[in-house]
Fold:
Amino acid sequence: MLINSDYSCESVEVKESDYSFLKYNSYICCGSLFQYSKTTVINSDSVGKLLGPTISELIETVPKDDVLPDEHKDIIIEHLNEML
Structure:
């Protein structure tokens, strides 16, 4: 999932006031899935972490998406639950 400034597909809003790394309110699109290796994620320049309420909202929103296959939704939700 990506964070971007345009609302598209099933999305969760993330507010600049909650995340210091954002320059403006943005959206996490729940209709696109990008796969990265664990090494890539570990070695990335992370700018922050999602807060619990945002993760909970993602867990509620992902199943509503009509683009991703159910098995992908299940994987996303499983990993989001691990982040809580």
Summary: Residues 33 and 72 are 8 Å apart (CA to CA). The radius of gyration is 13 Å. Helices lie at 38-42, 52-61, 70-83. The mean pLDDT is 87.
